[in-house]
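Standup notes, protein team

Yesterday: finished cleaning the Metallococcus carri set.
Today: Type II toxin-antitoxin system Phd/YefM family antitoxin structure.
Blockers: none.

Input for Type II toxin-antitoxin system Phd/YefM family antitoxin:
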Amino acid sequence: MSINEAKVRLGALVHVASTEGGDVVLLEDGQPAAVIVGAQRFQAMIDLIEDLEDRLSVHEARGETISLRDIDEDDLAGS
C-alpha cells in the first residue's frame, strides 16, 4: 500500500495490525519503505531476536559455530 493511501487509512491499518496480526507494508515509489506491525507481534520478534542472540553468545563462548540450520524451525516461527 502506498504511503499516501496509508495516510487516509492509518487508524484502520493500526487496528488491523494490533488486533488481527496483519502486517502492512508501506510502499514509496513502488518499493517497500516501512511496515506497520502490531505491538504484541513486534515484542515477540524482539524477544525472539534476544533469545537467539543469547544462544549465539553461549556457542561463541564455547568456541563453537552455529548455523540457522541448527535452530529449530519452531523457534524461528515464534512458537
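Follow-up from PR in the comments: The CA atoms of residues 15 and 55 lie 34 Å apart.
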